[in-house]
Amino acid sequence: MKFVDEFRDADLGQVLAEKIRATVEPGRHYKIMEVCGGHTHTIYRYGVDDLLPANVELVHGPGCPVCVIPMGRVDDGIAVAKQPGVILTCFGDMMRVPGGTSTFLDAKAEGADVRMVYSPLDALRIAKQNPDRDVVFYAIGFETTAPSTALTLMRAKADGVKNFFCLCNHVTIVPPLRALLESPDLRLDGFIGPGHVSTVVGARPFEFIPVEYGKPVAVSGFEPLDLLQSVYMVLKQLADGRCEVENQYKRVVPYDGNPQALRVLAEVFELRPHFEWRGLGFISQSGLKLSERYRDFDAELRYEVPGVRVADPKACQCGEVLKGVIKPWECKVFGTACTPERPIGTCMVSSEGACAAYYNFGRFAREREVV
After folding, report:
1. Cα dihedral sign for 15, 17, 23, 26?
2. What pLDDT is attached to residue 369?
3. Beta-ladder partners of 165
4. Pairing between β-strand 134-141 and β-strand 269-271 as defined by DSSP bridges
5. Summary mean pLDDT of the chain
6. What is the predicted pLDDT for the residue at 48?
7. Are 239 and 262 part of one and the same domain?
8. How many independent structural domains does the chain possess?
9. 33 and 155 part of one domain
10. Residue 229 and residue 46: Cα distance in Å, rounded?
11. Between 269 and which of 6, 121, 250, 288 could a Cys-Cys bridge form, CB atoms 3.0 to 4.6 Å apart?
């Protein structure tokens, strides 16, 4: 990619939109899920959906790493942050994610030492600067961010750092997609595959979708033309009677993934038997925990965490949004009781959340007028 403008060319966007219109069947309704929250924000920031025919609907998936964290896991982190002598570090998005009764930001206001970091290496640096205190990194994210956590733990081990710990909430992308495909609530025609995750795992892990479920997949980049081309690729497969995984994001994604990153993940992490997802419940083999070789860095072994499952607020429908069952504006509290300034659910907090995309780019107003 030489210049980002190449992927935001309005004239090329119109050409792709015309190809899409020529590909779809007029009487058929198409539902395509964009798995990644970054895709959702591109779609609504640049008005990609405005270029699509009325019978092509984009559905939002569970690909936001902050949105899928259940309230009970937030409470676990707050419990650790309140331990004497602990410095808890996390990404900025996590600071305002609601737990059962409070957030990390509330815990900080009450006296806990909670600090925002931009990478796990920042947390390791804080640990080295404060050898008399425990520093805990609250790790979140799919396979996209897990390698950076793994490399940081490897660095801590190599440097002999004894006061650095990880509260691991990393998750994997394939199990929730399988859970969605098994769900009776949702009927999809195809998927826009997650670009960031695929830079690590590649496009090959998504082959089960066409093979087992007969749905086409196009792994996509994050610019407007990337999304339009990927939608066209999925629709073209449906028109041709094909069903496979196509890699639109070839400039970044190797089909078989990044072998070095995958080796690092295999060394530092292992799969959890079960992990809870917001809106999806417990999904087996979907979460990561530290491997036996790195147990000395595991905050869940060093501290007692509540480990209590906390039900989402009844008014919040983040779970339905994450599953693609409803659009954000259909939630009863969207834009009223729940806003980015005072969020009730995670989808309104995260920079990749679908509710935040609708709210920040004004889509909810238009949708409500249409209804």
Report:
1. negative
2. 43
3. 136
4. unpaired
5. 91
6. 93
7. no
8. 2
9. no
10. 14
11. 288
Strand partners, 171: 287
3-state helix, strand, coil in the chain (%, to 5): 45, 20, 35
- Which pair of structure tokens corresponds to residue 144? 């996209």
Identify whether the C-beta of residue 51 lies closer than 8 Å to the C-beta of residue 228.
yes
| Cα 56-66-161 angle, rounded to 5 deg | 145
Yes or no: say if 307 and 301 are a contact pair by the CB < 8 Å rule: no
Cα 298 to Cα 170: distance, rounded to the nearest angstrom? 13
Whether residue 78 is found in the same domain as residue 222: no
pLDDT digits (tens, 9 = 90+) for 273-319: 999 998 788 999 999 999 999 999 999 999 999 888 888 788 888 88
Has residue 319 been placed in a domain?
A: no
Residue ending a domain, among 281, 302, 323, is 302
Residue 301, both tokens:
């072994």
**CA torsion angle for 228, 234, 239, 245 (degrees, to 10)?**
150
- Angle formed by the axes of helices 259-268 and 146-159, to 10°? 60
Higher pLDDT, 292 or 44: 292
Structure tokens at 169: 């909430």
Instruction: Report the alpha-carbon distance of residue 145 to residue 269 in Å, rounded.
Output: 13
User: Are 283 and 176 spatial neighbours (Cβ–Cβ below 8 Å)?
Assistant: yes
224-240 vs 10-23: helix crossing angle, rounded to 10: 20
Other Cβ atoms closer than 10 A to 6 = 11
Cβ-Cβ contacts under 8 Å for 252 (sequence gap 6 or more): 195, 199, 221
Question: Does residue 273 sit in the same domain as residue 144?
Answer: yes
- CATH number at 262 reads 3.40.50.11740
In sign, the C-alpha dihedral spanning 343, 356, 37, 62 is: positive
Give yes or no: residues 168 and 264 share one domain. yes
pLDDT (tens digit per residue) in 112-171: 999 999 999 999 999 999 999 999 999 999 999 999 999 999 999 999 999 999 999 999
Give me the domain span that covers residue 280.
71-173+257-302
Answer yes or no: do 51 and 154 share one domain. no
Q: For residues 73 and 308, give the distance between their C-alpha atoms in angstroms, rounded to a whole number.
A: 8
Tell me, yes or no, whether 313 lies in a domain. Answer: no
